[in-house]
Amino acid sequence: MAPPRILEGESPELFKRSAKREYPDVDEATAESRYLRKTRTEGVFFTDEFGKRCIWGPVLMNTDVHNPRHLYCGEPQPAAYKYNKFATTVMLNRIAHICYKPVPLSYIDRPAPKGFRFLTGHRSERGWTLPRSHKRNFFQFPPEIRARIFEFVLTAPSKKSAICPQIVRGSWKAKEMVTYEDTYIMIDNGDQYEPSPDYAHVNRRDKDGPFIEKRLITRPLIDATCLRTCKRFYQEGCPILYGKNTFGFGMASSHSWEATPQILPGGNRLHHPNPHKPGPEEWHAEIKEAIVQVEQRRPVFMLSGWVYYDPFIRFLHKIGPRNAPSLRHLRFNGTIKIHTCKYPWATDEVHLDCRHDLYRSMRLYTYFINKFCPSVDVLSIVLRPDEFVKDGFIVSEDPNNPNLQNPNNLPVIPPWRVTSMQDEMTKLLEKSLWHINSLRKIEVLQWEWNIGDREWDIVPLRFDEPVVEQTLEKVKKRREEQLERKIQLRTKINTKSKKVQCGFCGEDNHVWGDCFNLCALCGEYGHFRDTCTNWSKIRSQWAQNSRSSN
What is the tens place of the pLDDT at every residue in 395-421? Predict the structure, then answer.
């Protein structure tokens, strides 16, 4: 077996050591060939199990959403740029901005070129066009089998992964490269694509002779486009998509490069509402109005600014009140802000490049979870440390601000403000999260830097765990009380709805003790006043009482 030939730019020594470490019991050439087949290292020639000369080429992704399309300002546009026809130029503050109009699904869902479909398609696709009456048609399978198939297609294989829907997107940048990405589902804390069992084989030739270029075909871990096939697919697949996955959301941002304007359909006007969340004065009124906007699914350009830019609330608006009750596991990532974004010594407001406070956002989300997500039983909160707080001072990484060069100008954290994530998280659990009636599990995690692996890991937050248990006990007690009240109310309604007949007068809807048809003189039942036989006795008794009183 010929040894693999390492191309320019590779490290032969490192490659050989890795191959020998992986396969120590075989010769060097065999170990390197097996190692290549396993790792699929690109640009390295090897001999396959049939003795043919092969090389791994670039990976083929069976989707066109993994790579954003670029539009360079002031440069020639690529001929194959897919969304050129939706680009337009808008003048804002005498600066030209390139914006994108909304791209219709009919344009995005156009079939891929025939050659690409043939190269990446599954070999069983030829048998997919079966009539409804065929015994191997999809809807001829039992419901349990269909549910298993939907679960395989629509759920993430790892329970640690969270689907992060990209609902709020920017569509413009000034004097920089402009990008547009299709709407897709991103897997956090894991790969977005999985390898397919099939490979693409391309016959090629170089100066050393013919060889086979193998290209791995990958597919997204989740492909929800099948739900647009028909109404029945949508009805059967949506509960699995939303109920079997964990959905993760970050915090919104008020920064101009995060909360970017959007172009209005049919014109060159920009829509840029205020992304700041409501203050204490208008808190309840704004939440009430936002719930109505989500419930009625008003057009996105009619939403309040903070609703428009908030990832979680926009997601509820996108899926609608019909699918939101299927959500069971939510995860929120953010920072509990200890610093303030307004400096008292500054001549104007200085807003740091940070996202909204997780504590305040979670208090707001509680109303929406109770209203639209009654089935959420697991809530995960992933905390990040406040990067602008160090050694008891509020700091900033802005090197251009002269006030930050002198530590004496940095304000100390006020005594009334909490100084740790643990204290603020405890207050959040005790005051807000226990109002979510359906909770059965709360996970409090944090991002921690792993020095050995030199990467960020998600680990449990070290704080008073009995607080979580007490919160869940309060939620359970509240849920039981609500259930008991519902049972009592239902019993009362059922009692009133039963047909009751008076044993004296024979009329319905009352018993003899409440009957108005009893004798008004003696109070006995069985006769009316006109036929009362005790009238003479009652009259003599009244006369005797009147004489004794005189």
Answer: 554 545 554 544 555 555 656 566 677
Split into its structural domains, the chain has a count of 2
State residue 78's pLDDT score. Answer: 38
Do 444 and 295 fall within a single domain? yes
CA–CA separation, 489 and 467 (whole Å): 33
Strands (E), 34-150: 44-47, 53-56, 60-61, 69-71, 87-92, 95-100
State which residues form the domain around 444.
245-498
pLDDT band at 256 (very low <50, low <70, confident <90, very high): low
Query: For the chain, what percentages of helix, strand and coil (3-state, to nearest 5) are there?
Result: 35, 20, 45
Residues 542 and 403 in one domain: no
Instruction: State the pLDDT confidence band at 127, using cuts at 50, 70 and 90.
Output: low
Tell me: do 375 and 444 sit in the same domain.
yes
Q: Residues 502-524: pLDDT tens digits?
A: 766 767 766 665 666 667 667 67
394 and 529 belong to one structural domain: no
Q: Could you tell me if 347 and 306 lie in one domain? A: yes
Beta-strand relationship, 87-92 and 60-61: unpaired
* CB-based contacts of 475-479 (< 8 A; 24+ apart in sequence): 475/434, 475/436, 475/437, 475/439, 475/440, 476/440, 478/434, 478/435, 478/437, 479/437, 479/438
**Pair 382, 479 in one domain:** yes
Q: Is residue 481 part of a domain?
A: yes
Radius of gyration of the chain, Cα coordinates, nearest whole angstrom: 35
Task: Give me the pLDDT at residue 235, please.
Answer: 92
Report the alpha-carbon distance of residue 344 to residue 483 in Å, rounded: 50
**Other residues' Cβ atoms within 10 Å of the Cβ of residue 56:** 20
Residues 173, 178, 182, 185, Cα dihedral to 10°: -60
The answer to whether residue 193 is domain-embedded is no
Please count the residues of the chain.
550
456 and 539 in one domain? Answer: no
Return the higher-pLDDT residue of 46 and 455.
46
Q: What angle do CA 318, 88, 177 make, to 5 degrees?
A: 85
Distance CA 440, CA 193 (A): 32
Taking the C-alpha atoms of residue 163 and residue 240, their distance in angstroms, rounded to an integer, is: 13
Q: Among 248, 221, 241, 242, which residue's Cα sits nearest to residue 158?
A: 221
Give the model confidence (pLDDT) of 72-111 as tens digits. Answer: 333 333 333 454 555 555 555 455 555 555 566 666 566 6
304: in domain: yes
